[in-house]
Structures are given as C-alpha cells and as structure tokens.
Amino acid sequence: MTVQQTSSATSDFDLAQAAARGDMEAFEALYERYYRRVYSLCLRMVANVTEAEDLTQEVFIQLIRKLGSFRGESAFTTWLHRLTVNHVLMHFRKRGVRLEKTTDEGDVPEQAEVGSDRPQTMPVIDRIALDKAIAQLPPGYRSVFLLHDVEGYEHEEVADMLGCSVGTSKSQLHKARMRLRQLLTKKT
C-alpha cells in the first residue's frame, strides 16, 4: 500500500498507532495530512517564516517521540494542535532565557517583558477569558474562527465545510477577531 492509499483510507488513530510502532509510512501519511496545519499554526504564533518552518519540523520530531501517548480520547487534530502550541510556547520561553544578558560585572540587568507595563496588551490571554469570549461570538463568526484560527484550515476549506464563499469566510473571520478584541480588552 502506498503512502497515498494509506493516507486517504486510514483513520488518524490507526495511523498514529502504526507510527508509534515504528511504521514510517504511517508517520509520513500523518505528516502529509497535517504539515500545512502545523506550519500555519506555528506561523501565526511566531510571525516569522523561517522560525515557523523550523518549529514545524521540531513539532514533527516531537510527534514521533510522543505518538505512543496518544490514546484517542480526543481527536488527533486536537491533540496535535495542543502539542504544537505547547512546543511553540516552550520555544518562546527558551528564547527568553537565551536572550538574557549579563553585564561585565556578572549582574543581570533589569529587564521588562515586552508589554508588561500595559497588561492589557500582553500576548498571553487567560484561557478562561478567551473561552468565554469565543462563546459570546455569533455562531457564524465562532465557526469560522475555530476552523481557521484554532484548527488551522485554509479559507477555501472553511468555505467548503460551511457552504459559504471564501470572501464570506474571510469577512466572518475578520469580524470575529475584531469582536474578540473588543470582548477581551473590555475585561482587562
């Protein structure tokens, strides 16, 4: 069976289990199926093409190591999304440590996190507040936002799934982001 046949005929759970047992064809099928989604998520989080490419490769290396822990209790896409987000967040933490400098005397100069003097602009938002804000979105906005920004689907895919035009998908996403911004800045 070719990777293409494996890719389209096998569930994510079966592919993950086979890859965890060392089946490289199954892992390649998972890679082909989810590379774009992982890359898109990394790119949105780091806003740097080169860094996103590196992080995507690191996520798939991490995936090989962790596939045995996937139990199928949630969708594979949800599990992979969380693995990706955690990896990128660890990258941010490591980068913050690496960028710390010392003076000639060995002292660590005072440093402020970017945005720490204005907490309402901090890049990390309380998960509960975000969940509540997403729940307050109108159903159309919420669907497009979750499919595009959370699940990583392209606008063409979102439009196909929801039975709307690509332009509507883009418009709904923009409006959802604006509404979320309003809801989240109102709370801080």
What do you see in this structure?
By secondary structure, the chain is an all-alpha fold. It folds into two domains: 3-98, RNA polymerase sigma factor, region 2, helix turn helix motif (Rna Polymerase Sigma Factor, Chain: A, Orthogonal Bundle), CATH 1.10.1740; 121-187, Arc Repressor Mutant, subunit A, CATH 1.10.10.10. The protein contains nine helices and no strands. It has helices spanning 3-9, 12-20, 24-46, 49-66, 76-98, 127-136, 139-150, 155-162, 166-187. Helix 6 crosses helix 9 (166-187).
In short:
Helices cover 70% and strands 0% of the residues. The N terminus is likely disordered.
CATH fold category name of the largest domain:
Rna Polymerase Sigma Factor, Chain: A
Q: Count of DSSP helices? A: 9
CATH architecture of the largest domain: Orthogonal Bundle
From the alpha carbons, calculate the radius of gyration and give it in angstroms: 20 Å
Provide the number of structural domains.
Answer: 2
The CATH superfamily label of the largest domain reads: RNA polymerase sigma factor, region 2, helix turn helix motif
Instruction: Tell me, rounded to a whole number, the average pLDDT.
Output: 79
Q: What's the β-strand tally? A: 0
Name of the top-level CATH class of the largest domain: Mainly Alpha
Order of helices and strands: HHHHHHHHH
